[in-house]
């Protein structure tokens, strides 16, 4: 009896020990094993500022332009609200869509002229006045100076109310009263800095396509560098030995333009001569003018056969602008381009959006019929560069929009670009850069959120932080009116965000559907889990039975 | 008699009116054509053509891809804008009885390998990872420009894939696969970064329609050669080469594209009708719900060709040639290096002077008026020409030129 009780007690102790062992196995597997497995199979993801990036999704631009309005003696309207000098602000807010808004602020400082400025305004011609005034100012990027001259002043030609110079100043006639003057000042300020439409065009990524005009598609997007190639196409070297002083022309006419834009991007210029390169289209012979004509609707087919030979694929990774000068064959000379209405094009040139331009250069026939071929042709580079520079400006988005009446815009001359046109470009580019960074970072954050098994390395995370900081500083500088530092910051932000987004390590690991995940883990975990689970089930059943037994024996 | 004359006059007037209307319609048609250029909103075209299977018996997949490559090049897209990925080399395969050729029609009617094929990703470089890298742009910095897809927000991209596939996946190189979810995610990342304006996705595999089921980004149009559960069949074997040359769907697409030229106005609806069930045995499918424009208004050349938009340059900048900006910049200190000279590629003027009237037309020489040239000069011509062309021109030109020169010299009795 006692032996049976001792055996039963030993049995009980054995069972208890077995229960404790099973429970401890289960506890270790759950408490130690599961977290260890989780930690060792997770991908390394550095922390990212998700909140800041989400805040960037809503862009409300605040663009401030510092303007100095200087009244020459005799030009002050009688009904000025306050005595000079005083400060005034003009604000306008536009809501483009639910996530984008623009608030423009013109901070005007109104004062009267100093003695030196008066002397400058007394110059003989308006160009000299402009040059003299430029010496007196220290206009920083983005700021404007508007000089109000008396209505009866002879400095401006008859019928012209506003003159916009080559630098950042403009001369405005006082007008018939304060309201007229205000309207004129507003017009000039918009021409020289930005308009709603120019900013909208810069934000084309965020706007629906229907609101954009063809201008928005024509010019190159903001990029860190551009490659410009000048090519001379000579399909008939037997008849024409063409010489062009491209090096001299580039250094005289193109380089000043690019130097002005050097702050915007890196430029590299090269040139080449292609022989036996024909246009893909046969021109039509026109009997009345005894010349050959290329009609407007055959122009799109001209570019493709030539493009393969231009060698732009061997150039850098930057966008390439191609400018081609075509000297037609002896048998197809002279060659003119016809526009849609059948009229001859004055410049004999056409351009293609985001690609470049082509100009046809006609050579006169030999003076005497027995003149020895090939004829030596020296290309008039001034005429050619006038057209190429115009096309270059168009492709960069510097275009003179429809000129309102009474406004005279000074031609930029040999520099190719007026200072205020550079400002216009910078305003648009800064806004475009900020919008690009915002889209890039928000989509990167979305991507990294959605796909859990992409590794985020530390340098990717640091680039993202840098981009966020730079874009915040760009927005802050725009609000204060420092265009130079705002553009600099926006360029930095674009570089960092592009580097982060296009980092080669961000390729997501191949997609694992759930059933494949089960297929991998079950053979590993099931053999280990089955005994533990079964013994836990047994313990649980025995515990339930023991709880029931005392009630039964009672 | 009197009644007939006014009737004739009426008829003439009516005819003149009709002609005038037709003329006006034609003129406005041309005008519309010009305006329509800006409707599609793209300024450049790219193509990514992928063949995913290797081994000799998958000859037809390489032939498929090369036929599309050929059409796309013929319609104007340059090599620099085409990313061609071929997983195996059929032209130089040891089992190819006609080396350096890939035929698409039996009896060796059409050699799609041609003279001018530029393969960007070849053989083992065609992997799912490389393909996704090309699409998303996450490429290591050392990759050459020809291997990159440098599209922007105004690019129309054509993506053509062929190989062996199944329900929801496409097999690469017989060892890995890409799923429709990954493809859809890659397109979404392209859209987020605005790497395309519109995308046309064509796939010729078994159960191809499953690959475009999961797309969710805007502006994508997709075509497939067969529905889920159907197999895409191959077209015809060539007994001389011993394998099937093309797949049916791509064969009929190639025939359709051969009739397109850069100025044609054929639209996408015609492409949807290509290869009905009677010819293809499988049912081709398409998906246009993500595309914003009506397929009726989408030209074939919007994706397969490269028709540029042009604008007339109306303005010029006035330059003053007398202002010399040379003095304003201080001369840079340069190391006294020997000035580099561009080597004389082909002293054309010299040769012309020496060899009489030679006109080069697309690598074929015509010799005119050789009477004045002495025999000694002829010999000198021959040496000069052959030397120059040996050194400078590629093999393709040399073959034809040498034959032509020797023939002509033989004719002249030297």
UniProtKB/TrEMBL annotation, chain A:
Stored InterPro entries: PtdIno-glycan_biosynth_class_S (IPR019540)
Alphabetical list of Pfam families matching this protein: PIG-S
Membrane topology label: Multi-pass membrane protein
Subcellular location: Endoplasmic reticulum membrane
GO annotation, cellular component aspect: GPI-anchor transamidase complex
Membrane spanning residue stretches: 21-38, 518-540
Protein keywords: Endoplasmic reticulum, Glycoprotein, GPI-anchor biosynthesis, Membrane, Transmembrane, Transmembrane helix
Main location: endoplasmic reticulum
Any Gene Ontology biological process: attachment of GPI anchor to protein
Pathway: Glycolipid biosynthesis; glycosylphosphatidylinositol-anchor biosynthesis
Family assignment from sequence similarity: Belongs to the PIGS family.
Name of this protein: Phosphatidylinositol glycan anchor biosynthesis class S
Gene name, Swiss-Prot/TrEMBL: PIGS
Automatic annotation (TrEMBL), chain B:
Subunit: Heteropentamer. Part of the GPI-anchor transamidase complex, consisting of PIGK, PIGT, PIGS, PIGU and GAA1. Interacts with GPAA1. Interacts with PIGT; this interaction, via a disulfide link, stabilizes the expression of GAA1 and PIGK and links them to PIGS.
Origin superkingdom: Eukaryota
Keyword Membrane part of the UniProt annotation: no
InterPro entries assigned: GPI_transamidase, Peptidase_C13
Pathway: Glycolipid biosynthesis; glycosylphosphatidylinositol-anchor biosynthesis
Keywords: GPI-anchor biosynthesis, Signal
Entry protein name: GPI-anchor transamidase
Catalytic residues identified in the record: 164, 206
Source organism: Dromaius novaehollandiae
